[in-house]
TrEMBL record:
SMART domains attached to this UniProt entry: ZnF_C2HC
Signal peptide location: none
Annotated protein name in UniProt: Uncharacterized protein LOC108254076
Domain of life from the UniProt record: Eukaryota
Domain spans labelled CCHC-type: 146-162, 166-182
InterPro entries linked: Znf_CCHC, Znf_CCHC_sf
Molecular function (Gene Ontology), one example: nucleic acid binding
Length: 226
């Protein structure tokens, strides 16, 4: 768009590094490097609007891929996980956190690791990673956080900015699922609000059309080529 050429100097001046721009349906989507902070992005949006009059939406940070390594021995810690990735030739491998399934509090753990695109592509295709004395399964880890208090995306209940709670069981307001006293079938507040046909599931659970749509949009921001 011609208007964008008027402000081509702004990203460099403000310390925001642009990875690529994509023109879609008459709009320009801007992908920025993942190290750009939210404050800088907000400043850049305001500056573009002020100088061009264009309405700006979100500038999308380019996210590094994340993979999950399943059933890792409980004695193995982050540095050892990262070393296993480096032995495969990984240019980047940051072990972020581990988690266990269900009530398995002492057994095998699963590690979430942020990697470069080439490493993700190689390991997800292979499906396995040699770590310790075992060959562990590897898969993509692309998921969205849903607040159990308000059912909003991108934050957790302890940092929820919403004024009102929303029930993840009955879809009612002013209470959470843990405090719900209504009997009856499960209802997804997200899909109810979006007028989806299928709403008999938990928010973000299997069959949640709203979650699946947002997840597809999220996956498009991941740099699988870097």
């Amino acid at each position: 768009m011609k208007e964008m050429t008027k402000v081509s100097h702004l990203p460099t001046k403000m310390g925001v590094f642009i990875k690529k721009t994509i023109q879609q349906s008459g709009k320009v989507r801007v992908i920025v490097e993942g190290n750009a902070g939210a404050y800088k992005l907000a400043q850049l949006r305001e500056a573009v609007t002020a100088k061009t009059g264009l309405e700006t939406g979100g500038l999308t940070p380019d996210r590094a891929p994340r993979v999950v390594v399943y059933d890792v021995a409980p004695t193995i810690q982050g540095p050892e996980v990262e070393e296993a990735f480096k032995l495969t030739g990984a240019a980047k491998a940051s072990a972020l956190y581990s988690f266990r399934n269900g009530r398995n509090s002492k057994g095998a753990q699963n590690w979430v690791v942020e990697v470069d695109g080439a490493t993700r592509n190689k390991l997800v295709t292979k499906g396995r990673l040699n770590i310790g004395w075992t060959s562990s399964r590897v898969g993509d880890h692309a998921k969205l956080t849903i607040c159990r208090r308000c059912l909003g995306f991108g934050h957790i209940a302890t940092k929820c900015p919403a004024k009102e709670a929303r029930c993840g069981k009955c879809a009612g307001r002013k209470h959470e699922a843990k405090d719900c006293k209504k009997a009856g079938e499960q209802k997804c507040a997200l899909c109810l609000d979006a007028a989806e046909k299928q709403c008999k599931h938990s928010p973000g659970g299997k069959g949640c059309a709203v979650y699946e749509k947002k997840l597809r949009a999220f996956v498009k921001t991941i740099d699988y080529q870097g």
